[in-house]
Write a structure and sequence with these properties.
The chain has ten helices and 14 strands. The chain has about 425 residues and is α+β, with helices and mostly antiparallel strands. It has a five-stranded antiparallel beta sheet with strand order 2-1-5-4-3. It has a five-stranded antiparallel beta sheet with strand order 7-6-10-9-8. A hairpin with a 3-residue loop joins strand 13 and strand 14. Helix 1 packs antiparallel against helix 7 and helix 9 runs antiparallel to helix 10. The radius of gyration is 45 Å and the shape is elongated. The two termini are about 50 Å apart.
Length: about 425
Amino acid sequence: MNRRHSLAAVIAFCIGLAYVTLIGGSWFLLERTRQTALRAADATLQNAALIVESVVNRQLLQVDGALVSLPTLFSTVARDGQDLTSASANRLLRGFNFQTFAFRDIIMVRPDGRIWASARPNPWNGNFPVGLLKMSATAPGGTAVVGGPLRNPVTGDWVLLVVRQISVPGIGELDAAAEVPLPLVTVLFSAVGEIPGLRITLERRDGELIVSQPYDEMQVGKPQAVAISPIQANGVAFMIPTDLMKAPTIGVARASLYPDVMIALTLDVKTSMADWVRDRNRMIAVVTIALALLTALALTLAAARRQRERADAERGRARAVLDSAIESMSDGFVMWDGEDRLVLCNQQFRHMYELSTEFVRPGARFEDIIRGGALLGQYPEAGDDIEAFVAATVAWHRENFGPMERELPNSRWALVTE
């Protein structure tokens, strides 16, 4: 009775340990995978920010490069001895504008704000934003400024204006402006736009929205409810404080090559973790089923234990009968497995091959037993070439060539049958 109680206690302990291991291990695994998913979301967001920064900088530099090349374009007219007029400048700009899709129009503006030339007719109804001219005049080192978003009074489209001062031969200092429609900017975000839960914004340092993806025209040019770049703009992903966004959200911001133009991305944690949530729910379901199976298993272990004890007792009796029969044989008896390893032998076999006794043990290889015995003189016929004798004996053993008479020490002979 005590033994049964002890065994029951052991079973109960093992079942309880399995419960704890299953629940604790599942919780640990879920927490580890959750942290891994969050780190993957951070890495995805940071890599996406790098891509967006790269394409935005490349687009703005391409536009700026076109403006920088204008003096060279106009100098060709002067070298040909032609007078540079507004009409001829319009033709040059129109041809130049057709060569690129980085912007829609190029406008040349005099210091007083009057439009001197453009690629398209009647740009801005003649009312170019003079505030940008002041910004361009004060830009450090003759760099370009990025203005906007502004609504073009002719087309009604929201646009950015890249403006820089240039010197035109025979005309003097002018401001060159390239008009970039916001749809051309949002196209740049397509490389990362398929990431679920991702929002991309170009914003000013003061939080004014330039453009966003998904695109929301009603918010263009307005202060954002939550501006990302003023919080942290070092390119490292961070969790946005819950007092700013109630839903868990990761943010990252980077500065472009042009002052006051910031790249900001946010990622909705719930959306980005959807795969993990699905896997978590599946694991919970699997663990619940496993716990139910453990409970059912605990109820059947006692019966299984009794059945196993009966089977063990029957196997023990059968083994005892087999051992008794083998030991009662007058002949030496030995059994090998499929890999020629010793399974069992009787005492008569050990007596006949007493010089090989130290090698005759369960698991020993047939070849090793023969070689060890030959080295100790168990087989007088082996002679000096032990390995040849071993090879011949192993071949006979494996090929089942029939009975063989074998000389033993002290002039004894044995009939060996496989």
